[in-house]
Amino acid sequence: MFDSLSTKLQKVFRHLKGYGKLTEQNIQDALREVRLALLEADVHYKVAKDFIAKVAERAVGQEVMRSLTPGQQVIKIVHESLTELMGGTAMPLDLSGKPPQGIMLVGLQGSGKTTTAGKLARHLSKSGRKPCLIPADVYRPAAIDQLITLGRQLNIPVYAASSRDKPEEIAASAAAFAKESQSDVMLVDTAGRLHIDTELMDELKRLKNILHPKEILLVADAMTGQDAVQVAGAFHDAVGLTGVILTKLDGDARGGAALSIKAVTGCPIKFVGVGEKLDALEVFHPDRMSSRILG
Ligand code: GDP
């Protein structure tokens, strides 16, 4: 995960650790390398700039801790700052209140939305919830079939939608189906498009008004880097996201999306997809991600 970024940062810090004493110049030189590594990983330029400014301020004015060498102290500051950049702490789903609660999954086509609906259903089921799946992507009949197959595999009820139904009708029937199937969470898979368009956003707004979901999660492909960040911004402006699920982190994504989304849009990453299988979903822990990146 983020191999190139990790290798570059580790090289900078190996170098830093070698010094017994650090001058302000050593720190500035190292941070310049860190900034370049972030930019090459497709981190938003402003995010990278602000990040470096914050680290520099902390590193130069730091209290000397006897237990750490100066190099280790800078690494510690970078670790803490990366963690903060990605949201600080893990953000659990909010499914409080009277069941059934709704989770709307939104995103562009091919981002991994339908697969993620299955993964999330499995995750919720393992955490003691009783999810059901609601296919509201009527423009792609294959998406409905895909969800029915996933539901069968997971032994999770799936609303029998047809491609002739209107998404709004499906949404309006979802709560009754959830009650009937004794489910306490409705996972609603919505339509995706190749590009963001007003028609899609208007449909999502209508579904939101019908479902009153507790969570609206954007499923975004980490491999698309800054595009994923832009997509998150556009969806957030239109429907008000409560979080992001970043998929395909098992591929050769450079890290830009994971590191920039929270800072640019204010939306926390709640889960990451790390494979095609149904168990390949992880709760996103910013501190663990920083540790992975810094090695
Ligand atoms: P949708 O169009 O957004 O519903 O996307 P799909 O759920 O059909 O997924 C598109 C492709 O991405 C499929 O081949 C999935 O197996 C794949 N995919 C989804 N999530 C992940 C992931 O986390 N890692 C990898 N490697 N592939 C994924």
What is the mean pLDDT? 93
**Derived structural class:** alpha/beta
Largest sheet: 7 strands, mixed
Strand content: 5-15%
- Order of adjacent strands in the largest pleated sheet: 2-3-1-4-5-6-7
Helix content: 40-55%
Unreliable stretches, pLDDT < 50, 5 or more residues? none
The helix/strand order is: HHHHEHEHHEHEHEHEEH
Helix segment count? 11
Characteristic terms for this protein:
binds guanosine-5'-diphosphate, alpha/beta, seven-stranded mixed β-sheet, GTPase activity, hydrolase, 11 helices, 7S RNA binding, 12% strand, nucleotide-binding, 7 strands, single chain, 295 residues
Account of the protein in words:
The protein is of the alpha/beta class and 295 residues long. The protein is 52% helix and 12% strand. It has eleven helices and seven strands. Strands 2-3-1-4-5-6-7 form a seven-stranded mixed beta sheet, sandwiched between helices. Strand 5, helix 10 and strand 6 form a beta-alpha-beta unit. The protein starts with a helix and ends with a helix. The mean pLDDT is 93. GO terms for molecular function: 7S RNA binding; GTP binding; GTPase activity. This is Signal recognition particle protein. It catalyses: GTP + H2O = GDP + phosphate + H(+). It comes from Desulfosoma caldarium.
